[in-house]
Amino acid sequence: MPSLVQPHGGTLIDRVVPPSEAEAFRAAARPLESLVLDARELADLELIATGATSPLTGFLGSADYESVLARMRLADGTVWPLPLTLAVSDEDAARIARGAPVALRDASGRLAGTIVVREVHRRDPLAEARAVYRTEERAHPGVAYLLARPVNLVAGEIRALLPEEPPFARHRLSPRQLRARIAERGWTRVAGFQTRNPIHRAHEHLTKLALEVTDGLVIHPLVGETKGDDVPAEVRFRAYEALLERYYPPDRTLLAAFPAAMRYAGPREALFHALVRKNYGITHFIVGRDHAGVGRYYGPLEAQQIFEKFTPAELGITPLRFDATFFCRACDMLASPRTCPHPPSERLDLSGSRVREILRAGGNLPSEFTRPEVAEILRTHLGAKPKGRVLRRPGGFIVWFTGLSGAGKSTLAERVRDVLAAERAVEILDGDEVRTHLSKGLGFSREDRDTNIRRIGFVARLLARNGVVAITAAISPYAETRAEMRRIAEEEGIPFVEVYADAALDALIRRDVKGLYRKALAGEIAHFTGVSDPYEPPLAPEVVVHTDREEPETSLAAIVRFLAERGLAAASRKAAA
Ligand SMILES: [Zn+2]
Fold first, then answer.
1. CA of 323 to the centre of ligand 1 (A)
2. Which residue in 54, 99, 200, 222 has the fewest CB atoms around it within 10 Å?
3. How far is the CA of 418 from the centre of ligand 1 (A)?
4. Structural domain 19-160, CATH architecture
């Protein structure tokens, strides 16, 4: 296969025990001393054995280890940014003999491989943390892992049995297997995309930009251990498969699992991710902002800049550096700061936690942000978590207006209904109407007002859980009661959008459409909110509209835009523009 890229260091390592020799290998390992590997070490063992981490043939000895920490090279000068190590307790270190094979097992005792112990050395965990992660903070998941492991490191050449029924078996292609697929397709320029997340539109855009200038694309998601809050690999693979099936050319795309654990080492790990991809036959590696980063430990461009420390010949793989991409409403397309002149306010940019929040609440992500097929899979995954036993039809949510009398709540509620009615069933629970029918007889004491609001909230939830958009337009003056309505709705998975119709009291008194303020100020109406009763404005409403100084169209557009961003009114963005 002469057209394929050279493996890192020149030789594709193979330390896998062939199936035909597995039985003899197991028998030979039975009398050996054993070491138990954790998930990351088992992942590293597989990477080394399959040649993914060529030229490594085993866990690092002291010379390579020190060299990697100090200068991102193996002792022989080959570029290598991460120390792959096997840590053992003091007792284990004392027990195993140098120069002899030792069995490597997982926590359940399954034989994973053997190592011929060449050396046992010790590390300084804080020095390793500083070199690799550039911090000693335990809040960094890589540092936390490192400091929890023993300091004795066993080095030596390994051999490994591959798991017989590995997760993602269908997509688990060894470097040799992936190279063969690439060769079959005749690709010379091969783009590789590393990810540990579901692919949203922004990253789909990156991968397709890469595919525009290469022969083929390998989507190569990491399936080893990640942080607890990353989406599990099984779920991600369902989403990748759905995406590839519908939106990628099958003859120009391959999906394969990359069985490494995440270290969150930022720039060093970005370099590692790129170098090992050579061994899989990849020639061009996509490096986005803050690749393999976590928290704020690394600058957003450092993962791209690290490649500049080495010559192209030393690297042997071309980094494809991309800026952050997003959907820009003004461009009406996916873009980046390199291609879009508009301010960040035009960007449809949802954080990972916001995405989870929306999906958990049963909401839809805007299709410009996430393909509906992917959103559905993520929602099902998140929805599997217990959140109450209320049965719900999809699509319903609550728009909760609050504001003083005369601030325009009813008018805006009707306008929002008119926009949404084209795509959903919508009902308005108007304050005055509710008091006529649902809450007849209630007065305006704090207690009666709260009862009124709880009744409105109850009906709104009934509607929303049956797929109806419920818009409430009552003064709802008390923050605590509104918060209670929100909490109950969200516990039932119903999205709750609070809209504050903000208008200055003196403007309302001047306007006084119904003549109520005049009467209230004259003492003819008791308990009048804003005059003789309190109004507690919301501290963090989803939308604020300033009805005393903006046109209703402007207020309406702000509300509909928010609903569209939340994926609650996908078709309405243009209607409101
Ligand atoms: Zn733009």
1. 14
2. 99
3. 29
4. Roll (3.10)
